[in-house]
## 1
Amino acid sequence: MTDKPAQPQPESGAAGRAAAAPGIGGSGAAPASEGAGSGAAGHGPAAVSGRRAHRKDSGRSGLRWRKARPAAQPPADTGSVTPAPAASPGAAAGEPTGARPSNVDEAEASAGSSSAAAKPSTTGEPSTTAASGRTEGTAPVPLATPSGSTAAGSQPAASGAGSAKPGHHGGTAPASADTAAGKPAARKPTARKPKERKPAARNPDGSKPAVRPADGRRSAWGIAAGVGLLAVAGAAAAAGSVWDIEGAAAEVPAVSAAVAAGNFTGVCPEPLRLLDSTADETDPQFSPVSESARSRARAVVFSDLGGVLPGSRLAELGARNPLVTIAKSSGDSSTAVRGSSDDGQTKLLAGVVSGQALTEPTVLSVEPIGGQQALAGAAMTYQAGDGDLRGLAAANCTAPANDFWLLGAATTVGATAVLDLHNPTQTPSTINLELVGAGGRIQAAGTRGLLLAPGESRAIVLGGLAAKQESLAVHVRTSGGPVSGTIQQSFLRGLAPGGVELLTPTADAAVEQVVTGVQIQGGKPAGSRAQTGGGSAKPALAVAVPGRQDARLQIQVFGKDGEARLPGGGALTAAAGTVTEVPLDALPAGTYSIRIASDVSVVAAARVSRTAGKDTPPDFAWSPAAGRLGSEHLAVVPGGTASRLVFGAPAGDATVKLVPVDRDGKPGKEQVIHVPGGSTVAVDPKAGGADPAAVVVSASGEPVYGAQVLTGADRADVSVLPVPPGVQGRQSVPVYLGY
């Protein structure tokens, strides 16, 4: 790139007429082009450092300077005066005076030889250079002293035309050929002073200084340090991936994420069945098959305020044709919710299926209404007065999920536990099971990668995976379609039946759990059962610790009169990865709510038992922990049993509102229940001869929890249904962060 030349100032006198020629070193020499070496007195390659670049533009002669690297001056000879050679005519005309050096070193070497061969001249006579042998011009030039000052008898150049600056070669501006001959130039050339640069360091003889070895050592040390840092970082990353880092003391509970409203789907478990396929071929007098067993479902679906029911039906799992069509589909679930009927009156109705007989797993499907999920629910009951599966079992028809816990299974002698899994979705599901017992986690073949196709069911005998377990927890996790699951649990105490139950999912793992609907019968029957080998029927609280850290538990029990004290004060430690049972048979007779506080996430459920007399085999039930009540929970009340709605408020006072719905789908009068803090309240929804199909439960105030306890009229039947989640809970899904 060529720098723009600056305008030179006019010179006066002889010094102004005679400018220094290119290629001449010393004071008054012009700067050489960029990349050329420094030039000394003389011509040829050594003189290129001061050479000027000429160009013609539109018939005019113009000059441009090229930046030159400064070179060290040869050592001055203080004993003699060396004149500068005169400019050659060819150089003044713009002709090159010698070959351009190929690099800096060649230029410097040539400069040294030319300087040695040049003869000093103190006259205006021509002189011949040893390098080229060419005769120089006769124009006189001022002589320079070794210090750079002008010799006597000569006049200094005008300011700006050729004044030398320290650190640069040649401070004299170049002149054209006409100017050198004494003729006035048509246009004065422009020249730009080169930027002031610090000359490169040189030895006294003009050679380059040797590179210090310290720089190489410094570079080697830098490379070694970088390699060391990379090695340390890689070792730290590898150690973090290999070491098993324990989790925090307090786990993060699952959070809810809102989702768009979709169909409400509730899966009712299949009826209880014996595992022995040859039972039907035995003598009816000794047959374990019950002749009086009945399985029925009751479903309730609410309309909007205008009395319009959403499309809903009750059908067997995987079947195209429904068992019952509650309301036909409108084909448009985004229709706005009506706030009143056509006559302007508020008209809230419910479609009710009082008692549909079941032989297979059954699904209640309800379309959304007005972009919101409809208020609906269903429950199934099993009752039998004979056979090995004698007793009462009930379960809510729950929505499928991808992660849930089931507590209360037993696989000891005489106990049978069957895990039933159902896929009501259109997506295949891959299921993984985790088994946790009193001694820790149980590793078993056949618990990973279980495939369940859409619309299919699968029954797994838990005794084949984990035998001789008095208290077993099952963790179900799925990828793909969500599934529903229950455990069919039954006992034989010798030759006598010991009761049946359907174990349903408990509340998600959390640092606080509340179990309500714990009915303790008390008296001698419970003690006598323990002495005859019926230990699995004793009331107890089961707590499973899913994580890797032991749980410090604080257990509180609340009855109708306040808190009831447990033996030992209720403080204990539960080992990580185990199921711990806490006996409850020391409590007096009554209905209780139990609060479990922990420093790590746990899941919990309580076992209750009941008997109708000395010679009557007992029945048992499990009450799983449930979530806090909010607004519009639909509790279906099964027919043919006695029912008690139980509410517990461990922390403070709460208010519960109950709205019954009869079998015709008409709402009844609202009932308000006050629940004092630290107590449990039981309400009979069938009091006064009422027979509601369901009760709408809404709560306010401090946290309150609810369950429904079902009992038989003249038998030792008992079962517990937790109050299902409300409508708002169905429009969100739990997001698990791990524990």
## 2
Amino acid sequence: MKMPLRKTLLTMATVLLGVSLLGACSNTSNDSSSKGTDHSGATGPLKLSMMYSDSSAYPFNKDWALFKKLQAQANVDLDVQSVPSPDYNNKLRIVLSSGSIPDLVTEVRQDIVSEFAQNGVLLPLSDYMDKLPNLKKKIEEYQIEDELENWRTKDGKLYVAPVMNETALYNTAPVIRMDLIKKYGLKIPETMDELYAVLKTLKEKDPASFPMANLESADTLRNLSGAAWGIDPSYNGFVYNQDTKSYAYSYTGDHYKQYVSFLHKLITEKLADPELFTTSLDSWKQKMVTGKSVFTYTWISELAQLNADGKKNVSPDFELAPIAPIAGPGGKLAASTLRIPHGIVIPASAAKKPYFDQLLAFLDYLYSDEGSNIVTWGIENDSYEVVDGKKQFTDKITGAASIQRALWDSGASNQNYTMLYTYDWFIKVLDNPLVSTLTEEAIANHWFPPITKVPKLSPDEKEEENMQLTTIKDAYAKAQDAFVFGGMSIETDWNNYVKDMENRGVKKLIDLYNNTLK
């Protein structure tokens, strides 16, 4: 599995720095981008520097036709300063701590924005919303203010231009071998108890199997199934309780105890892969397509290839199919879906630059309909065409082995500068009608969990948090592994675990977070 669509969603939910400004925009545009840009009398393109997270899956290419068109149309010359993606966050902190920051810094996560927002390094974009009409419009259209609130500082200021998805997608789901469900006359599991019963039956039918497998890590499994258990989404394990108006730590609560108890039972009875927390993506795939495992949580967009391989390796009847969320103590909830994965920041020093207004105009263009269309759909009559008033990808794109791969190779859907992802675009890229059907069902039945409330910390509080979290995360991970695989007893060691976590910093952080609410 070279670049699973699991990463595609995370990557696509962040993509392509649209480069087109107002001076040379098409006259057909109806939004703010059509007004044109005055580069303070300059006749050549406006040169802007941009820090760029460079993925080995689709390395930056200055000769992408799309990239050239964007710059020409915008009358902008982008000086791309690429950094290999694995090193990006470390380099990002170094750059933001220096006195020399590019005009545009892409792919900045919420925790980094929070870290640097209050020390004068970043530009408070909320002070300039009158110069960002397209961004303001899209925030309202997407009804995303609840999630955007987590990116604001305590004084309400916003220091990031957010990448935004128009809607959450039900693209991660519990997935089961539907051919075996039909063959043995089993009921599709709707609760965790029913899931246990189904896995037990499938184990009896194939004693050499380990019915449940996991994509790769303990965090992945918890992220994909934790909402149903009532333990996720969270902020590093901490959750805000709307009833008590206070924070608590999920991973010492009763729901988490039920979660690790369930996994321990699966491991003990050999109903789950013994490599549940340590398997690789390639190993997981092999287990699924050879029939060694028959249930997992994964991306629906993975299923076409998995089923093709399974039909070759196991049976022509092989069918992995997504099902509705399996209800647990937390309810019938799907995995949390962030609609704002990251964004672009601008240094505060940019406000003193003679081209400041043009810089903001360029950023705002990325949120315009015209700019967004270019960076997601590509070039008309090359990567897409308009048929009966609707955009659709051309055979050049749909005929490729992967639509996403074809877009990446053209410079579109690049994680550094696409700021908007429309529902229609996502559905066409994923090219799986199940995603659309299940997303509509998820919205109608309220399967998506609520947004996690992120505490708003001062720089000093953030420093204290970082110190405590290092110890907490390490202790939590070790205890989780021990509870699931038998190194610790849930019956006899649980109370000591809870006390130990409190002493390692959980209580201090709960107090810290609750103080931010005053």
